[in-house]
């Protein structure tokens, strides 16, 4: 059963035909909220709001370990993350939808691994290709079917937040090879890999990165809300095809 983690702008999946909600407890603490089980296009899916139902948990305070653990306990066979980002690459203007293929991690101080016990053999995961290619393909095919094509491939930079970046930081991210910037993609992707859950993401470009486009003079928060409202409606439309 596919699990969907919804980020900013998607704390509820209104198209989900809800069957039940369940609160999970994990050895790593409490997930962001109950897991909602339901049906989407006739197929079973589960949904978790990354920032909590009322959008109260900031990116650096999300219990990523508990979220991934709970989804696996609930029977998830893969995880599809929906996350809003700032656009850096010129074609990734606000409203764009993109399925990233690589990650740069700038986060710090987050509980980022399940392998932190010192009474077990040291464990390293392969993370060369951080996203599951089959799930990426499935998302792109659904988008095609829904008539909402998405860009295939972007380098996602995960920053610590919760503040947005400086213009110089966005310039540095671009020099590093980043195409989009968000605050929640790590350690989420790595934790999924650690427990062998195929993981892929849809990134929704909410705004130009700091110093770019209409963010040149500062980020316009008012327009972000409108952009996300419209773009998340398109994401929901794509997700309607995810079980086919
Ligand atoms: N920076 C980091 N995270 C974000 C942004 C941004 O500009 N927009 C949405 N999430």
Automatic annotation (TrEMBL):
Enzyme kind, highest EC tier: transferase
Residue intervals of the Nucleoside phosphorylase domain: 2-242
Residues bound to substrate: 183
Site location (Important for substrate specificity): 165, 221
Record SUPFAM superfamilies: Purine and uridine phosphorylases
Keywords from the UniProt entry: Glycosyltransferase, Purine salvage, Transferase
Pfam families attached to this UniProt entry: PNP_UDP_1
EC number: 2.4.2.1
Assembly mode: Homohexamer. Dimer of a homotrimer.
Record-given protein name: Purine nucleoside phosphorylase
Organism for this UniProt entry: Pseudazoarcus pumilus
């Amino acid at each position: 059963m596919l699990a969907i983690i919804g980020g900013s702008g998607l704390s509820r999946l209104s198209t989900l035909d809800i069957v039940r909600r369940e609160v999970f407890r994990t050895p790593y603490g409490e997930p962001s909220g109950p897991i909602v089980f339901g049906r989407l296009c006739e197929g079973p899916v589960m949904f978790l709001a990354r920032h909590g139902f009322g959008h109260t948990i900031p990116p650096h305070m999300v219990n990523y370990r508990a979220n991934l653990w709970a989804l696996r306990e609930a029977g998830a066979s893969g995880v599809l993350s929906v996350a809003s980002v700032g656009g850096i690459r010129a074609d990734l203007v606000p409203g764009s939808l993109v399925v990233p293929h690589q990650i740069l991690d700038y986060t710090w101080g987050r509980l980022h691994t399940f392998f932190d016990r010192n009474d077990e053999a040291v464990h390293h995961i392969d993370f060369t290709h951080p996203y599951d290619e089959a799930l990426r393909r499935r998302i792109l095919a659904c988008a095609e079917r829904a008539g909402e094509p998405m860009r295939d491939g972007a380098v996602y930079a995960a920053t610590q937040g919760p503040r947005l970046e400086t213009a110089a930081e966005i310039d540095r991210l671009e020099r590093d090879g980043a195409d989009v910037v968000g605050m929640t993609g790590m350690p989420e992707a790595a934790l999924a890999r650690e427990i062998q859950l195929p993981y892929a993401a849809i990134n929704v470009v909410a705004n130009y990165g700091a110093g770019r486009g209409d963010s040149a003079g500062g980020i316009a928060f008012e327009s972000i809300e409108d952009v996300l409202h419209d773009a998340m409606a398109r994401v929901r439309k794509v997700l309607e095809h995810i079980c086919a």
